[in-house]
Specification:
Order of helices and strands: HEEEEEEEEEEEEEEEEEEEEEEEEE
Shape: globular
Distance between the termini: 87 Å
Helix content: under 10%
Number of strands: 25
Oligomer: single chain
Strand order of the largest sheet: 11-13-20-15-18
Length: 333
């Protein structure tokens, strides 16, 4: 039995429509693979020149992000793009995301940092303690793990100078499991730090016993290689990584501060009219680490107060944390 002509035409039309739909979906699903971005951070209130290494780049190229920005393209090539990016001074420090897009392709979101420390690139020739890369602090070193090879950085410190070192890797989506070591010039290891209390990112606070040069070694404990990291070094204390990252709406979490910092750390805790709980720490520049995120929490009842949409330089208390520091949400600074 032959089908009526109208049904044949309808079948042709539906088939053509399905082919077009599949082609459009493939176009929409095509991605731009980003292999590198340097530096791995943007500075609030400043213009940062950024270079991406990727594939399938073409004009017009756009940058999207979870924060406002002004973008001025310098040049765009199929495998590299360079742009000047300026973000407002009010953008919060911490992990954030951006992505590249053309008319028919888009990249996976890339996690970067909003960071006020100056960026320095790993020179790629610092795999031996006899040939370290000299640095001055404060700074943030953008590098990649090289399998079993370590990266060595050399810094000169005065006696009794204390520095905080924070390897940000997992927090920007890297697979690197860092180990941090500090050596003196005689080859004696003075400090080793592996996992932090909340994850594989290494953190350490070091006081120089004497005037001189010190080596900072960073390596991937799994020797996996190609794991990107940002090694933040300054004279500010290292902030613990907040944990857990979420709480139930009906619960009011406890916040934990680092001990012996009451001279500079002041906490404001309150509840807002929208039953939102948030925390603010007033502190000095570079004290708020880029991973410390103050998240508003829903609460039930209580006095109404000002809602501070800010960061907390501490960590959410969890069952493995023996420290008894609690903060009263009704207290005033």
């Amino acid at each position: 039995m032959q089908l009526p002509r109208v049904w044949l035409l309808l079948g042709y039309f539906l088939g053509y429509f399905a082919v077009c739909l599949v082609c459009d979906c493939k176009s929409l699903l095509s991605q731009i693979p980003i292999t590198a971005m340097a530096p791995q951070a943007l500075a609030p209130g400043k213009t940062t020149r950024v270079e991406w290494t990727a594939s399938a780049l073409k004009t017009p190229l756009r940058v999207g992000g979870s924060f406002p920005m002004e973008v001025q393209w310098i040049h765009i090539e199929p495998n590299k793009a360079v742009a000047d990016i300026r973000i407002p001074e009010t953008v919060r420090l911490g992990p954030s995301t951006l992505w590249l897009a053309t008319e028919d392709s888009i990249s996976e979101p890339l996690t970067i940092l909003i960071d006020d420390l100056p960026s320095v690139s790993d020179n790629g020739a610092n795999h031996s303690p006899s040939q370290p890369q000299a640095i001055s602090i404060p700074c943030a070193l953008d590098g990649r793990s090289d399998a079993a090879q370590s990266d060595f950085y050399q810094v000169r410190l005065n006696a009794n100078t204390t520095i905080g070192i924070d390897c940000v890797a997992e927090r920007i989506g890297s697979a690197m499991d860092s180990v941090l070591r500090i050596w003196d010039t005689s080859g004696k290891m003075l400090l080793q730090s592996d996992d932090s209390d909340s994850g594989p990112d290494s953190q350490a606070q070091f006081t120089a016993p004497a005037d001189g040069d010190y080596l900072i070694e960073i390596v991937d404990s799994r020797y996996a290689g190609d794991g990107r990291y940002r090694l933040r070094i300054s004279d500010a204390p290292v902030s613990p990584i907040p944990y857990p990252l979420a709480v139930r709406p009906s619960e009011l979490p406890s916040l934990v501060s680092r001990p012996n910092e009451s001279d500079e750390a002041r906490w404001l805790l309150g509840r807002s009219a929208g039953s939102r709980f948030s925390a603010l720490q007033r502190t000095s520049r570079n004290r708020i680490a880029p991973h410390s995120t103050g998240v508003p929490f829903d609460t039930s009842g209580g006095n109404l107060g000002q809602n501070h949409s800010t960061r907390a330089d501490g960590s959410l208390r969890h069952r493995r944390d023996p420290r008894p520091n609690h903060f009263d949400p009704n207290a005033h600074p």
